[in-house]
Amino acid sequence: MEKRKLEGQVAIITGSSSGIGAGCAKEMARAGAAVIVNYPVPQAQAMAEQVAADIIAEGNKAVAYKCDVSKEDEVIAMFKFAEDQFGRVDILVNNAGLQKDAKFTEMTLDQWNFVIGVNLTGQFLCAREAIRIFMKKGVDGVSKAAGKIICMSSVHEVIPWAGHANYAASKGGVMLMMKTIAQEYAPHRIRINSIAPGAIATPINKDAWDTAEHLQQLLKLIPEKRIGQVEDVAKAAVFLASDDADYINGTTLFVDGGMTLYPGFEDNG
Ligand code: BGC
How high is the pLDDT of residue 114? Predict the structure, then answer.
């Protein structure tokens, strides 16, 4: 049998008790990676343990681990746990993210800080820890790279989004953080890229697709005329983490059914 694309590698997927993160955890495990299924709060523990159990039932390796990615000490502890548990870390999927939507003039500082704290500071803390470990390990033949990071961004790293200034700012921030650290660490054979999902059917955007009427509205924004599924993103994440993507560094891969193609102009504007 051909060697699986991520065989022998260890992946930390933040925010993987549900949604895109859970999909990435399962798909990376199918590609041979041992996976840390990270979840943020005790209420998500059962879901994370179920994701890990599903992975183990398929004959692969996973363990659930609680860590709030916006807390420095917890992030450091999570990376240590991963090394103790599986002996190495090769891949970080910087996925944990949330929305706290409000009109800008009504947005509280707490709403602003919460979203920036998880979506942007969380990605900083996890990427910094991952890179420290990748630098110590170097290239050891398990992969062509010393390590790979995939930052989960959004189409809203380029599409402004009224009513979601905190979220759009966090994703715009992720875009330039990703490119900057890709430039800084490419000489060390570390690859850092982003995926920018469009509308993927997950709990975060349930309101946008849970009724026929809402879905019809949403589909006007998507040239492919279908909502995305977590597998659409998860398969792209496996590709970016694999040696097939060895010459891809500092780029954002849009997985959005064409949402960023100005669908308003479909009909001649
Ligand atoms: C948001 C979703 C939204 C999608 C497209 C994502 O980043 O989290 O709520 O449906 O962008 O607008």
Answer: 98
